[in-house]
Amino acid sequence: MSRWIDVRKNLRSFRFAVEGIGTLFRFENNAKIHLLAAIAVVIAGIWLRLNRTEWALILTQVGLVLAAEAFNTAIEKLADVVSPERHPQIKAVKDLSAAGVLLVVIIAVIVGILIFGTKLIEMDWMVKNG
């Protein structure tokens, strides 16, 4: 009798995904940099006492950046297997994949400036007007 949901298969897939996360942060320097930035952002969010909506926006941005980095890494590794030697199309693929990460990071920084900047301005105003 077939099951609608194969629990063992799903658990195995989940385990592979967790291994992928471990590999990403163990071996990829850019992922390590993004992870350190994410930790700094979380610490800043705690210090600035972000509200629920602000946390949702910030954590979504963090997740998008980390996911983009994972996709970029996967594409680059696949490209290296497909064409170990230099090839202009593979270079274009890698550049476009890296551009995707950069675009997500730029938007995340803008969201961070909007949220953290507003909080810092409010703190400054409260200090001055007490």
From TrEMBL:
Family (UniProt): Belongs to the bacterial diacylglycerol kinase family.
CDD domains on file: UDPK_IM_like
Binding site for a divalent metal cation: 28, 76
Membrane topology type: Multi-pass membrane protein
Localization of this protein: Cell membrane
One GO-annotated biological process of the protein: phospholipid biosynthetic process
Transmembrane segments: 33-50, 96-116
Organism: Larkinella terrae
Keywords associated with the record: ATP-binding, Cell membrane, Kinase, Lipid biosynthesis, Lipid metabolism, Magnesium, Membrane, Metal-binding, Nucleotide-binding, Phospholipid biosynthesis, Phospholipid metabolism, Transferase, Transmembrane, Transmembrane helix
Any GO MF annotation of the entry: kinase activity
InterPro entries for the chain: DAGK, DAGK_sf, UDPK
Cofactor binding description: Mn(2+), Zn(2+), Cd(2+) and Co(2+) support activity to lesser extents.
The protein, known as: Diacylglycerol kinase family protein
Residue positions binding substrate: 69
A GO CC term assigned to this protein in UniProt: plasma membrane
Pfam entry (one): DAGK_prokar
Positions that bind ATP: 28, 76, 85-87, 94-95
Active site positions: 69
Cofactor(s) it depends on: Mg(2+)
The keyword Membrane is annotated on this UniProt entry: yes
